[in-house]
Amino acid sequence: MAVRPCVRFLTDELIEQILFEAGEILCKLGVIIHNEEVLTILADHGAVVNPEKFHVLLNREIIERVVASAVPSFKLYDVLENQTHDFSGTNVYFTPASSSLNVLDHETEKVRRPHTGDYIAYTKVVSGLKHITSQSTAFIPADVDEKISDSYRLYLSLLYGEKPVITGTFTLDAFQVMKEMQTAVRGSEKALKEKPLTVFSCCPTSPLKWSDVTSQNLVDCARAGIPVELISVPLSGFVAPVTLVGTLVQHTAETLSGIVINQLTSPGAPLLYGGAPAPFDIRYETTPMSAVEAQMVNCAANEVGTYLGLPTQAYMALSDAKRLDAQAGLETSMGAVMGVLSGINNIAGPGVLDFVNSFSIKKLVVDNEVCGMMLRLVKGIEPKEDFPALPHFRELLEQQHLIISGHTRRYLKEEHYFPGPVIDRNNLRRWQEAGSRTLVERAHQEVKRLISEYRPSRLPGDVKARLTEIMEKEARCRGMDRLPERTE
User: Fold this and answer.
1) What is the Cα–Cα distance from 42 to 32, expressed in whole angstroms?
2) pTM score, whole prediction
3) Are 89 and 150 contained in the same domain?
4) How far apart are CA 429 and CA 431, in angstroms?
5) Structural domain boundaries enclosing 348
6) Distance CA 27, CA 176 (A)
7) Which of 38, 242, 275, 455 has its CA 20 to 30 A from that of 338?
């Protein structure tokens, strides 16, 4: 049996100390929650609430009770009700990061605001990527009213793609629309609970605050049985302590406060213990999420979540570079390696550049190969008819090669990961004969191939029509006469 390679940053003693300190903060300093319904829920369960200041003091009994009520795993399903994810143990899955404001145009190499056509192209590409197991609402189309930009992204994802979706809302009203879309796909609210189709990202505001919208999302998702991922974003040295341990304490406190809201609403509601920490680079006033310190805190936070018995998430395998270049490859690969060796269940990041502000479809197809290599990495090394070794080496010495050996033919594809055409493994002569294409050029060709070979979603036509009906109704309610034209 293979030994799973792993990396660890914290001892159990340090994890226990971090959890204790986070509890001290929540019980003695408290958290701000700008939502009257959430404040009422917390007060009803024994928290000390000051509604005028939106301030809440928890107690350790509440914290321990809700952590114990959270489920240690859950599954995710595609639009056709096939299971795609099992968030348990050290199972690892990759998804694109979410909510970029810009795209790096794969034709012009210019950064610009995205539109509906970009999102459709993205969905077609991600549909063909083997190692990216879910969609995300990766960027925000600028050709619709901002009041529907969250639900519109989910609409396009469900219309064109079959994979489950990592998403989220920007407004209070959007949740019901997005839930209605998912119910239309599943057929009923009960079926949606039984086979979740999405995960909603819910982000506290550092330090130690929950907005009206995000805290309501925790409540709404819990009631609907829709999984959430808790994304604390402490910025070390700015709105979080400068030390990594101090940042971890804050991350833990913010995440625990979200678990409390979610689990008090509905004990056993599915969730991912996640985050997107970053150091604050005082030289440029930026928040590099691909910095080595960010990766370390992500991995350590995963250890805290695992210690609590919860499935985990992290923003990793991304880059702060502005183009698909050597920096992008370095930062993405480093994050991917650390993420899979830590056993983070849901790694969000492929395709993203520029501090999560820009999305590149070309980078996404390159990152798909990075993900494939990482998934091979965590399979580890194990004997496969290797002992006794003498017969294999007798054959090798007799034949001077093992290319057509039975042992080779049985295990070649299982043992070796063969990347697609984006990764060049030709010798120099063959590379030159093929046109001396760069990585960016090869990625561009792969994007074009995936779009041309895209097969429409097998979601039934009447369900697609229902999705369009829901989206058009919401657009009219927000002052739009019609949705943008979709170029197939």
Assistant:
1) 12
2) 0.97
3) yes
4) 5
5) 69-377
6) 33
7) 242
